[in-house]
Input
Amino acid sequence: MLIIKRADCHSERQEGRRHVTADGSVPQNAQKKERLMSDSNVKEEIIRELSVAYWMELETVMNYISSSVNLDGVRAEEIKKSLAADVTAELVHAQTIAKRIKTIGGTVPGTFDFKAVQTSLQPPAKNTDVVAVIKGVIEAEDAAVAQYNKLIKLCDGVDYVTQDLCIQALGDEEEHCREFRGFLAEYESA
Ligand SMILES: [Fe+2]
Ligand SMILES: [Fe+2]
Output
C-alpha cells in the first residue's frame, strides 16, 4: 500500500497552476489552495465593484442636489422635496460602502478616479421639465439596482457582510425606483 501511495505521489504533475494526480483528480490540498486563490480574486473584484457603486452613489447625490434646487413650478415641489430627502439616503449608502471597502482591505478612491456617467440627470433645457428629471432619476435608480444585484451575486459564498450591506441598499433603491415610477405615471397622465 505504501509503495502504491508513493507511486501516486511521484506521478503528480503540474498542469499550468493545477496539481493533478495520475487518475486526473485534484488533490485536496491543491483544491483548498485553488479555492483560496480564487476567493482572493473575488475579493479584489468585490472591492472594484464596490468602488463603482460608491461613485454611482456620489454622482447621484450631486445630481439630486442640483435637481432638487433647479426645478421650477408648482408641479415640481413634491419632486424637489423627495429628491432633497433622497440625498441623505444616497450619502449614507456611499459612506457605508466606503467603510466596507476599507474593512475588506481596499482603499476608498479619490476624486481623480471619478468619471461622470449620468447623462440623463443633467439639468433639462427647461427648469419646469419635471418629467425629464423623473425619468433621469428612474434611470439612475435602475442602474443602482443592477449594480447591487451584481454585487450580491459576486459576494455569494465569499463575503456575507458585504452581501448583506448590498441587500439593504438594494431594498432602498427599489423603493426609490417605485416612488418615482409612481410620480412618472401621475405626471405623464396630467
Ligand atoms: Fe443609493
Ligand atoms: Fe436611490
Remarks:
- The beta strands are 13-15, 18-20.
- The pocket of fe (ii) ion (ligand 1) is lined by residues 57, 90, 93, 144, 169, 173 (CB under 6 Å).
- The helical segments are 2-10, 28-70, 77-103, 130-155, 160-189.
- The CA atoms of residues 76 and 114 lie 30 Å apart.
